[in-house]
Amino acid sequence: MSQEDQQTLSEEMKADDVLFEELRAREYARLDAAAQVYLDFTGGNLYAASQLAAHQKLLTENVFGNPHSTNPSSQLATKLVEETRARVLAFFNATEDYTCVFTANASAALKIVGEGYPFNSDSSFVLLSDNHNSVNGIREFCTSKGGVATYVPVFCEDLQVDEEALDNALAAASGKTNKLFALPAQSNVSGVKHPLRMIRKAQDKGFDVLLDAAAFVPSSPLDLKALLPEFVSVSFYKIFGYPTGLGCLLIRNTVFHKLHKPWFAGGTVAFVSVKNPSYILTENHERFEDGTLNYLDIPAIKIGLDYVSSIGMARISRRVKALAEDMVAALSALKHSNGQRLVRIYGPQSFAQRGGNIILNLFDHTGKAIPTCFVEQLANKQQVSLRSGCFCNPGIDEINYEITEEEISQYFTSNDDKSVEEVIAHLKMMRGAVRISVGIATVRRDIDRFCALLEPFCDKSLDEIIALAKT
Length: 471
Ligand SMILES: Cc1ncc(COP(=O)(O)O)c(C=O)c1O
Fold this sequence. Notes:
Layout: H1 3-27, H2 29-33, E1 37-38, H3 49-61, H4 72-91, E2 98-103, H5 106-116, E3 124-128, H6 133-136, H7 138-144, E4 148-152, H8 163-172, E5 179-184, H9 197-204, E6 207-212, H10 224-227, E7 231-235, H11 237-240, E8 247-252, E9 269-272, E10 279-281, H12 298-311, H13 313-332, E11 343-345, E12 357-363, E13 369-370, H14 372-381, E14 384-385, E15 387-389, H15 394-400, H16 405-414, H17 420-427, E16 433-437, H18 444-454, H19 462-470
Parallel strand pairs: 1-14, 3-4, 3-5, 5-6, 6-7
Antiparallel strand pairs: 2-8, 7-8, 9-10, 11-12, 12-13, 12-16, 15-16
Helix pairs in contact: 3-12, 4-12, 5-7, 13-18, 14-19
This protein binds pyridoxal-5'-phosphate.
């Protein structure tokens, strides 16, 4: 970066500090009023006070009825739902190219793809080993039809995808029909933003592409006109916190008819007879929206999108990246007096391809891993919200703990009664990590509070740390 660009960036970041401090005071005052530190933005974003006020005003001042009727309350609901649908498409630069199907969340969007994709005995489902379980689960739809599911590994050093392995997996499916490739735009665990050029690469090999954008879109602009994946999954509460219970599936119009709808329900059919088994499905988004839509909350999506757009997604992205960099620098500086680091952060060193979530483990001064539950216990006591575990993404955990296929297979072939506790005992190792994620409401004192929480771990043995967490 040139000196001039660096100067501009540092001025922009200073302006960001001012803006996001103001936002914190105005929109997220409840955090400081309750002396809370929130570091779980990848779990769920926080809503701004103005979003609630705008939604409450809308509900208080209007009469809404079940959509798709001619009565005025119904017509108003229909109008706002369709305006919101158009707003969602515009937000992702997907107008004209995509159909927006409202769902309960990203998982429900992914299930529509899994259930409806025409998997058969000749199918190939290629996916990264860094995927949320709601994507991993699609393999069951594929393999139950006789198709093959293939995982593409990520490197244990930096959790980035092994693109050579991807090339091989795509090439191995040459000549097959109905091929689907699934990737997360951003890992919900490591924060790695996977290269989106993989979309085109897979399409060139005859694959349809499912882009799970759930962890990416809260802090990165997504331009679907430029990328054109066939399917995209999103949860709205991850972008702006409110409302929960709503997501969407974006289906590229060119493959709309490729997805099979395995049943029909109220709202999805244009014609049904009870005297004859035939029925005619609707030819638009309604086909996949079973029953009555959440018509009171859907307009709050538009309010949320307007809110984040008023700040600017590029600005949110720059801010989150700066905060994540600060967090990593501050955590890396925590050391025992023997020079060993307290914190090990997984993933790439460079921030060029990282988002706002970071996973880490802590080690005592002898190098023993500190079980994540003790970190979480201490954080809970100090009103710091973070998350520990495997985050519904077992692939990354297996890589970080270097668990082999043989070790897992050995347990599953030699045990009739299977339980999670037994798997962990069999593997004889700690599992999981601590995840911290920053977002729109984070300010630098949150990072300071988190580091202050960990500081007492320095120079302590594991037993002393456990005692500390229990007091
Ligand atoms: C990358 C990714 N995909 C899918 C999901 C599932 O989202 P939801 O639980 O809202 O269905 C999540 C949730 O954390 C996620 O981070």
